[in-house]
Amino acid sequence: MNGLVVEAGDVHWLRADVALAAAARRQAAQLSRRLGFPEDRVARVELCVTEMATNLLKHAHDGSLALRVVRPAGRAAVECLSLDSGPGIHDLPRALVDGTSTAGSLGIGLGAIGRLADAHGLHSLHGRGTVVLARFWDEGPAPVPGPVVAGGLTRPISGEQMCGDTWAVRAAGDHGPGALLLMMCDGLGHGPLAARAAERAAGAFRDSARTSPVDVLQEVHQQLRGTRGAAVAVALIDVAARRVRLSGSGNVTSVVVTADARHGLPSMPGIVGVQMGRPRVFESDFPPGACLVMHTDGLSDRWRPADFPGLFAQDPVVTAAQILNQAAVRRDDAGVVVASHGQR
């Protein structure tokens, strides 16, 4: 089976200001009702985003909420993310106790946010910032994860609504159970034309029946002709072989993080859809506990795994969000996708 697993979709970014809580409640309710949530469940989502917003306004030096619908493998969920560059959480165990909250907030605390959500995650760096995730599934129990789980996040350049970066993940059943194919794409420039190139790349990736990174990259190249082009990298995670194979063209950073190392997988020079040289394949080991991180040049590539203690054992959405939170620049679109091979 080679169907789509998950993709970037539309992310609603809300910057921290005095109207944040009300705006977050409206957006969260709209997304929840779009998925057919009953009103009591809509209220739970609203409560979570209100607490997230209040915490940002009380403690963050700079912060945002990111709200979206994700549709992994035929299911759907509302995801609520809080990202800030505040002081971090000094006493994390205490902060996760129900009823512990910030002065002036609703008093439900981070622990209750985790209890209300179907899935949650939190990562905090002292003096650098915190990411909180709450996920609410449409109906029934959460899907059972495979051996490799993936997620990501995109954010447009300041002042734009459309993002020229995108990512997508699909199954690669030709390579055995759990094998995944990932794409990271950066449409050249920013704004509507970059977003158009990125969406066309995502469509080509979704529609392709191929699972070889080189073959998929060449198909994307053909589909992007007539656009301004993009930087694109495609990676195959072969669970059975414990290997990653990647082919890319343009400025996409791809890194395999293990317990004691960071191994880069380079992309070749070129512009997919405009002028792309002959693709090459680069490989790396991908043992249990490893993470593959792929991101655009809207993030600095100078980050080090040692700067993020505990992050790479988190839900990949939390991992992606914290890397974006710490490494992204405001003068460009930013996108990152992460695939994690089980827990460390």
Describe the structure.
The chain has 2 domains: 9-137, Heat Shock Protein 90, CATH 3.30.565.10; 148-341, PPM-type phosphatase domain (Phosphatase 2c, domain 1). By secondary structure, the protein is of the alpha+beta class. The chain is globular, with a radius of gyration of 19 Å. The chain has helices at residues 20-34, 39-59, 92-95, 109-116, 192-207, 213-223, 316-327, and strands spanning 4-7, 11-15, 63-70, 77-84, 119-125, 129-137, 148-155, 165-171, 180-187, 230-238, 243-249, 252-258, 261-264, 270-271, 275-276, 282-285, 291-296, 334-341. Helix 1 packs antiparallel against helix 2 (39-59), helix 2 runs antiparallel to helix 4 (109-116) and helix 5 (192-207) crosses helix 6. The protein has 7 helices and 18 strands. 25% of the residues lie in helices and 33% in strands. The two termini are 28 Å apart. Strand 12 (252-258) and strand 13 (261-264) form a beta hairpin. It has a 6-stranded antiparallel sheet. A 5-stranded antiparallel sheet has the order 2-3-4-6-5, with helices on both faces.
